Each structure stands twice: as C-alpha cells, then as structure tokens.
Amino acid sequence: MAQPTGMFSPYKPNETVDDSIFKTADCITRHPEPVLSYKDVPYRSALTFNAGVLKLNGKYIMIFRNDVGDFEAQKLDGVTNLGLAFSDDGIKWNVEPEPCFALKDDEIMRVYDPRITYIDGEYCMCFAVDTRHGVCGGMAVSKDLKNFEIKSISAPENRNMVLFPEKVNGNYVRLERPMPVYSRDGDYFDIWLSESPDLVYWGKSRLVMGAENVPFCNTKIGPGAPPIKTDKGWLTIFHAVDFDASRGKNGWEKAWRKRYTIGVCLLDLNDPSKVIGMSKKPLIVPEGYLETEFGYRCNALFPCGMLLEEDGTVKIYYSASDAVVRLATAKVDDLIALCTEPRV
Ligand code: BMA
Q: Which atom of ligand 1 is nearest to the CA of 220?
C-alpha cells in the first residue's frame, strides 16, 4: 500500500500535538469576510458550510450544506438541505430561491457535505448520507443542478467522497474516507481511493494515506475537494484532525475537543493512490475570530472546493466553525512547492 516516503506523525492516537507547527502557510491569503453565511440565504438557514465549488464557462457554481435553524438563537431544527448559489467572481454569491437537493425517508435522515465535479458533460455531486444503518457516501449526476439521478450509495461506514475531474486510465476515480472501528483506536481514519467504470460499481479500493502519515494529526484525516491536475501531480487538499481532551466549550455544544486543519499533498498523475509529496505542516490552521471564536464548532476548517484560475491562482473554499464559507487563495506553484520541498 502506498505511503508518503518517510512521513510519519510523531503522535499516538489522541496524544497531545506540538502547537508550534500549527500556523497557516505564508503563501495563503484569506478573503477577509465569509463568502457565504445564513444572511445570504433566502430560506430558513442557520449554518451554511462545507461547500463544493466549480468554475464552468467563466461562471462559479456552489452547492453548500444548509443546517436549518436560527443562528442568533443558536438553535438547529435538525434538518439539513443543500443550497445552490452562482457567482461571477467566486466571491459574491447569489443563492437560488430554493434548496436544490435533500433526501429524507424512513431510512435516510439527511444528506450533507457536497463536493462537485463536472465530468463527461454532467455535474457529479458526492455527498454524505446519514442512514439509520450507518453513514454512507452517495453520488448523483445532474445536467441542470435541479434534477439529480443517484448513481450509487456506498455501504457504511464511509463518507467524504470526492470525484476526480477526469477519468484516470479509463476509470472514474474517487477519494473516500471509510471509518474502520475494529482495527484502530477511536476516530483514527484514513484516505482511500476507489475506481469505477460507470460511477455505479466501485472497486480496486486501496489506501492512499494513513492518518499516521500526517505529522499534524493525532486522529483522523479525510479528502477535501476534487483534486487539480498539474504537471507535477494531482494537487489535493484534505482535512486533518487533532484531538485534545483538555479542550472545553468551543462553540454551541457543551464541549468540542477537535481541531480541523487543512493539509496539502500531491498524488501521482497515473496512479493517484500514490502520494508523491506532502507538506509536513498544515496549509491552513484556524486563526482569527471567525475560525476560533465564532460559530457552531470553533477551530473546525473543512475544505470541500478548490479550483485553478488561468493566472495560476488556486481558490480554496473551506468552512469556518461549521458556520460560514470562507475563501483562501494561493499560487499553484507555491502549493506544489510546499508538497515537494522541505519546510522548516
Ligand atoms: C466532520 C463532519 C463534517 C463537519 C466536521 C466538523 O466529522 O461531520 O460535516 O464539518 O466534522 O464538525
């Protein structure tokens, strides 16, 4: 199984991490304001986050998770739907009048955390599905972002699926994050890859990166956004979690003890299950009011969208505190350099 050469977390599961490496990389610029919050949504909304983003024919498209409720009252209704928004610049977003997708029946409680790809003339949306029998990864295609055809729903426990924007060696490829409980302690979860000839049948599954390979993680990792193809490899972002039992109230819940940071790596162009480089330090770390003091769960950054502009700028869309969508930018060459050069 592929593992990034020589890269190992110094931590045992849940062992306290060295805070000195938890600093956002110098190449990252944050847009000062959230690009999406409940205030932008024309229907009931408390938390707008974990948004998949695409750029197609000069237009930006976002599908975001909407946890319904009242933000000011810190009250959630227990309902989640997915909202659709469009933008001309990737910064100012206009939300459509109605949510574009939701599933709920006797078996399915909700869908959430969309990632979107445009492939073979169709939008493909990956999403998590909470069912009465476990968490599954779902995949649906659409020609108009109004009508979706579900292609596959995985067996539990799996989520955080992201589809590559093109086939590799003739197959569709996705990253995913199963949640094994028998072989590993606690929330110690890894990134895997599977292939499919048709988006329906998935197999040839293999490990891409173990949580133990990420030096800024002491619990779980998961894929972030659909990777960007570069001549050096597939540029890929992921979330990495460190847990600290001494953390207390960090948001609306009684206690929130995890910190979610964003990492970056390069996967091999011909076999994307091979990690060919990874930044030893996190790319983006929770910093400032919006990310550390505000929202539902503080210190939780969760990237679901990433795109490359013609001038070499990468736009990374990530959630702050499970509450709002933020935008960070960096030059693609700087991101590649972080993955390939030692960073001290
Ligand atoms: C993960 C998922 C995400 C969420 C994140 C931080 O496990 O539930 O939807 O954004 O935790 O709370």
A: 7
